[in-house]
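Changelog note: in this version the structure field was regenerated for every chain. One regenerated record is shown below for reference.
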Amino acid sequence: MDSLSSSFISIFPQPNSTVSHPPQPLPPSLPPAIKIFSVRIEEKPSVVTVTTTTRRPSGPKKQKASLSTKKRESSLALVDQSLPATIFNAFDTIINNFIDPPIRQSVDPKHVLSDNFSPVDELPPTACDVIDGSLPSCLDGAYFRNGPNPQFLPRGPYHLFDGDGMLHAIRIKKGKATFCSRYVKTYKYTIEKEAGFPIIPNVFSGFNGMTASAARMAVTAGRVLAGQFNPVKGIGLANTSLAFFGNKLYALGESDLPYVVKLASNGDIITVGRHDFDGKLFMSMTAHPKIDPVTKEAFGFRYGPVPPFLTFFRFNETGEKQPDVPIFSMTSPSFLHDFAITKSYAIFPEIQIGMSPMEMIGGGSPVSADPGKVTRLGLIPRYAKDESEMKWFEVPGLNVIHCINAWEEDGGDTVVMVAPNILSVEHTLERMDLVHASVEKVTINLKTGMVFRHPLSTRNLDFGVINPAFVAVKNRYVYCGVGDPMPKISGVVKLDLSLSEVDRRECIVASRIFGPGCFGGEPFFVAREPDNPDADEDDGYVVSYVHNEYTGESRFVVMDAKSPKLEIVAAVKLPHRVPYGFHGLFVRDNDVNKL
């Protein structure tokens, strides 16, 4: 989710429930295993591999640390030791140590990259053991999960959203599984790997206060002039999500253009390259495009710190980009991470988090929350050619970062949106552990302009997903991750939205808590019979990666979406740890073969 940070870089050249279940642990674990973290550290400016070994915290165990001298020596030859590189790296060291050291916990790498947030090395395709149950045939295909995984351990401030994108994919075929972890080979990743040290700054965590911002901007400009990197070729991380449309699979981060990726026949992840749709897509696009399951069209947008602050666009069923629709009625730069579509409209939430470079003058971040701002929802016809039909509705206190779904009722006179509302938006950037997200149903009467809202659950829920066949139409079931606290996900709950139409009571009807020390990520729904129009909406499986912090073991778990306890019907032991990340996507076997 390089979203918050990287949008700003474009200024450079270029849980209580009505159904209560006790915690359900994962299937029995193997005996306590060794937990291994391996990261590459860039320092003055060599590359070192540090391996830290810890055992399960059941007794007074000592920690061991070792340095791989052989790997260190072999890496030195890869480091750019030219005079410009040495000078700029020295300036970076001065800035990171004296001008803007990582004092705040939210940008201190020792805190942000602790435990299972720490990065892992790439892993080539490796066969996995199915240790519980059997994998359903409808899971033939591949599940991908994107997330931040910094190539180099940061020397200065680092935010969770700043890491290089890494894809973790499990390829399933005829009940067998192969797992692979690969970096998205972005321009940023590639030039920094060749140089042996970071080049492009962590914009979100690095531009705080006028002095630090000016210093880092000067070093960045110097690197550009010295030919160390060309911002025109992209500065994004591709670390947020994935999307499949037009028979292509994209790794996405909203600071840059999409990167096309594909899966080799052996399960390896290959980055094809940065994609501009024949020169029709400029600068960047959202990490959350919406795909209409009927028309196969994709809808997207980009936002930024200069007018137009919002631009809407779409792609036809073959993936060809259509003309931009600039929206000038959004009069200030807002953080617009996600949106929703119905059959007739696109819905944009303008929230209290915005981009304000002037905040840096007072020592603040260029991305911050404005508690005095009145939030709005903007509706525009999804086939609009300009913004003349754009309508804005004030909805005070509605701060939506992720949208779950939207649809129309009453013959098109009413629009309904379901989304988590961030009740403590001021903590979103600095203290995610204090964030509480309440899933709400928002109803807009297009004739009267009245907006009605009510919560669907009291629990801290985010990363909500639905059966993809119900995008843009009325759906009944939602599957959400349980924040405990955010950004850790301690389990998954199932919401029945129809209950809110009766007496607006708690809508959770099923839950699966992963167990002590076990945390997962965003769930994803896979239909049992995706081509059967008569299948029940919840007839399928919910999948996710789950990590056990006690044993250091990560698993791919498959849950029965119809079960009142979301019973685990299959579990795959993964060959290495999967760090906590962001969004995922399941791609069916016939679509994998098209890549």
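Spot check on this record: Confidence is low (pLDDT under 50) at residues 1-77. The helical segments are 3-6, 69-76, 83-99, 109-112, 187-195, 203-206, 210-225, 589-592.
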